[in-house]
Each structure stands twice: as C-alpha cells, then as structure tokens.
Amino acid sequence: MKLATARMSRAAPGRLGPVWTFLFRYGPPRWTEYVLRNWSGQRLVIAVPYLWLLVFFLVPFLIVLKISFAEFSPLGRPPYEPVFQWLEEGALQIKLLIGSYVYLFNEPLYVSSWIYSVKVALISTLLCLCLGYPMAYAIARATPTYRNVFLMLVILPFWTSFLLRVYAWIGLLKTDGVINNFLLWLGIIDEPMSMLYTSFAVYIGIVYSYLPFMILPLYSNLEKHDNTLLEAASDLGAGPIKSFMRITLPLSFPGIVAGSLLVFIPAVGEYVIPSLLGRTDQLMVAKLLSDEFFLNRDWPKASAVAIAMLMLLVVPIMIFQHFQNKELQANRR
Amino acid sequence: MQAAERRVDKSKTKHEPWRDPHAEAYVRFENITKRFGDFVAVNNVSLKIFKKEIFCLLGGSGCGKSTLLRMMAGFEAPSSGAIYLDGQDMADIPPYERPVNMMFQSYALFPHMTVEKNIAFGLEQEKGLSRSEIATRVTDILDIVKLGQFAARRPHQLSGGQRQRVALARALVKRPKLLLLDEPLGALDKKLREATQFELINIQESLGVTFIVVTHDQEEAMTLASRIGVMNRGEIVQIGTPTEIYEFPMTKFVADFIGSVNMFEGQLIEDLPDRARIQSDELGGTIFVDHGISSAPSATVWAAVRPEKINILRSPPADTKENCVKGVVKEIAYMGDVSIYLVKIDTGKTVRVTLPNVERLSDDERIAWDETVWLSWHASSPVIVTQ
Q1: So what's the pLDDT on residue B101?
Q2: Top-level class of domain B2-99+176-253
Q3: Nearest to A247 among B74, B110, B171 (CB)
Q4: How many CB atoms lie within 10 A of CB B329?
Q5: Is the ipTM of this complex over 0.90?
Q6: pLDDT value of position A1
C-alpha cells in the first residue's frame, strides 16, 4: 500500500510521456517486471533481434560515420583527430571534414574502381541469372524425389569453405593449371591461355560462388507457380514460349529481383575473389578500402569508402524490400 | 425436386437432336480409355454430344469426369480411343490450337493482369486481330457478364462470383466452338449459384455455344443440362435428359446418386407386359408396378421409390396388400417448403418420405413423432432396376 501511494505522488506533476513514466515510476530493478507485464510476446520476440542490430550494427555504423568525417593524423593513435571535443571553457567542439568524400569523387583511381566494381557485379548478376533461371526452373519442374537431390547438389558446395573453393580455382585457371593442360592435351590450343589474374577469372569466381543465391530464391518462387495458369494460357491459344513470356516470367519477377540482389550486393563489395583471382592493375572497391585501412592507415578515407559503398547498396536493398512486400501482398490473397 | 421442375419448364424449347438417328454428332468420344499407371481413370467411354447442347458429366470425385474434360481440352492424351470435334480428329492437336476453351474449376485467372488483360489474353494470341477489334470484343463480353466497371481490377480484388464471371468471359471471348466448364459454380454460395446457373443458360442460348459441364452437384446438372451423363468408376452408366435420369434410372447407382430414394430388394414373382409384382422381404409385402420388367423369372430386383412419391396416411387404406406398409414416424425434419419424415416400417427398415407443406396446419393436425402411419404409393411410382 505504501508503495502505491508513493508512486501516485511521483506521477502526479503533469502528464509525462510513457518513456518518462517508464524510467521514473519504476527503478531499474523493476524494468524487467514492467516489460514482462506490459509487453506482448510479439514485441519481445521482435525486440531481441532489434537490440542485436542496434548494438552490433547501428552503433558501429555511427562510429564509422563519425570517423569518415574526421581529420587524418598519420602518427596519431588512433590515426585521426577527434571529431567531438570538450573545450576547456565547457563548450563542445564538433569538427566535421568532408575532405575524404571529396577525395573519393575526384581521385581517378577511386572513380575507376567504383565503376569497375559495379560493372563486375552487374555482369556477374546477369550471368548468374542466365545460368540460374533455367536451373531453378528445371528443379521446380522435377518430380519431388529428383527435386530434393538437385537442391542438395546446389547447396552442397557450401559444405566446403568459401576460401578453399576460390583457391581451388587458382589451380584450375593458372597457366600450367588443369584447364590449360587439358586443352593442350586435346590439341584445341597450341599455347596456354592466361586466364588467372583477369576479369574473366573474377567472373568465374563470382558466378561460381554466388550461383546458389540466385537459384534458391528463383526456385522458391517458381515452385509455387500454379500449373493451371499455364494450362489456361495454353487453352487460350498461347504456345509454350508465349506462355513462358507472358505468365511464368512476369510471375517470377519477385524471384528474379531477390536473386539478383542477393548476387549483386555481395558482388559489389567482393574482396576475396578479386584479390585471389583478379587483375592487379584494376582494383575493386573493397580491395581499395582494405588497402586504405591496413596499408595507408587512413581510417577516415577507409570509413568514407565504407559509407559510400553502403549508400550505393542501400538503393538496391530498398528495391528488394519493395518487391518483397509486393510478393507478400500477392501471396496473402 | 425443385431442379427437376425447373427443367420441365425449359424443355418447352424442344431441341433434342439425340432423338434423331441421322443427326450429326458435334463431339464424339470413341472408346476412350485413360490409364495413370495401373489406375484406370476412364474406361472405354463412347459419347456423342450435339451442337448447342449443354451436356453435363455428373459423378462423384474420382469418377473420371474431369479427366474426360481434360482430354477434350488437350491437357491429357487418351491411352486409347479417339476424340472428334466437328469431324476432326483431335489426337495430334495441342491445346493451344484447339477451337475449344475451358473454364477452370479454380478459374486460373492470371494474378498479374487486370480483368481486361485477362480477357484480352486469348484474343492477343489470335492472328489478324487489330487492337481496336480486341478492345471492342473485350468491352462487349464485359457487358455480357456485367463486369464493365471492374475492367481495371486485379483478380484478387474481386469476389468469388466476379472471378467466376471473368473466367467465363475469358473463355467465351474467343468464341470457341465448344466450351468446357469444370465445376463452374463450385465456389459460389447457393443463392448466387442459382442466379448464375440461369445466367449461364441465357449466355449459352444467346451465343449458341456447345457446353460440356463437369459437376458433382446433381442440382447444378439438373438445372443446366440438356442431357446428363452419369459417371461411376471411369464409366458412363447412363445418359439421358434430367427427367429421364431422375424418373427412370437404369441402375441402383444412378437411382441412389441422383436425389434420394428408398430401395427395396425383392424377387420378381410376376412379369407380364403390362404389370409386374415383386415380393420384397425388406418391405414385408408386395410391390405392384403397372409396367413389365422383361427380366428372368424370380430374378432379384430392386424397386426404387422416390420419397416425394409416397403418401402418408393416418388410417389404413382400402387395399393394404400391395404398395402399402405400416410404420412408425421416427424423425420429422421441417424444411420450410417440404417436410421430411423418416418412418420405421415393421421389418426394421427406415423409409424416407417428403411431403410439401401445402397448408399451414396446427400442431395436432400435423403428423407427430411416434405416430403409427401407413405409407402407400401409386403403381406407376416405383422404378425397377435389375443391377
């Protein structure tokens, strides 16, 4: 009883917002109780991953964002000037430099590696789509027994480490590697082709590594297609190709978008594959970032590259979400 | 049977080509058999359907009626036998080249297209149709099915009845020679279904298309059909007009499947051209019919008596020897227009009787539970089936 009156008297002065009430009416020991009592299970379930993202994604992101606006000090430790500083007279000094960003857009090396990264990612995505669509379609149309075997085969490479699989390609692609030796033995070529350390090798590596990410969302879309729609199209006079173009393809559009983004997004920031298989004279942006960070120790520039890369990827992610919502709505029918 | 009464009205417009031996069949199924592995879905079906007919294939689930329809559309190939449409063998013609359209049970509307686009789809596949022509035909058919204001909607924004009409319009706009309808009204509620049934008949009559309808709903078949083909286990067991099927079923299965019926097993004790007598232990008496059976003497036969053809009497009739039985009322179900009585007769069998509620009766005038009654029927009422 005593407790209740005390609470009332504290809550009395003015109507306070719920957060305010939450913080002041209950002390920290009672927060857990408050949450358990007033929050539904749904809220709690959502709160856990959100808290995770807040601590391990949003906070580091804000730190990186802060560093990208700092001034580089080569001998400092950490190697940048503080952005926020309390001056002696009790004022907060905020020093934001946009120099790192300006540099990104003026330096030809940066600009060209941006363009190269996007180009590689786009072409790899297209290649994955061209290869993955027929595969996903075939799997979706296979009898259930074969379907599981095929799906298993698609996922099987994941059982080996990604790094090992990329290394294996070096052995296949190098000048005295498996492919060259085989072609020489067959007599198709007279002298070994140089395939390793070219853009070709990067495409091979990316397409090989990310193909499952194209196939799986496409498969899960195509597998849901109602066969009677194709029967209806056929009944209305559309041949197999027409039916595909007018019915299957447009209905699989959300799958195409999902698969393409799952390939495009990691491909833009791909670091391992171009480092191991790619050209040395043309860097991709992730390699540039790591060089900036580890070799030059220029944290502000590295941070600016990271932020710019994130911004470049936010647009595709938002497109992705848009189509995902659309598909969800369509499925809710 | 309401549906049967409705049918009688419609038959005023006599169009019965199946009675003319010289009439050319429009669709011919010849000895069609379809096997799926070991399972025989359709077993040696031969069938003739005439121009401008509404032919209903009626049967329970898994009886092969849908398979027959899918073979007509070209989605399944018969294991043996041939299908002719207007004299042309359909065997090697893929579905997209057949002058046949189908209305699917699930409607199969394209979810990513508007109503208008759905309907135009079939026309766009035809060669030599200009855009304006397609637009006019789409508008015309939308008017017929009264969906003009929904042209820009997507299928998921429509009600079940509207979707059903879009599916119908999409199939009809191609002006097919033959329209196949797979459980066309299955998803609609009773009131809407009845209204749509008549709408379908009107559309069929005004456009002069031949319909083949597959349904498991006997009332639907009765209302729509010019003729019904009753199917059971992959075979057609009887073909006839709704009245024929209802009043003169040829087998126990048909009698039992269409409407409800009281079946009495018995032995034939007299079989003359103009009358027959059946001794039935199940009834505990004799059944007299005013027509011959022409079956083997003392064969086991079944007398099928429809519930609405039985009278309930509160005192014994003058002649209690034949077509009469005493019993006790066990259940009464008041349905509004009719009442159903379940009467337990002395042999222990329960007989179903329906009486129209012509007059408003007070409680003590009505037949009550556990009342002893006499059931009787006219000599023309029973139908005798031998298998």
Answers
A1: 94
A2: alpha beta
A3: B110
A4: 18
A5: no
A6: 41
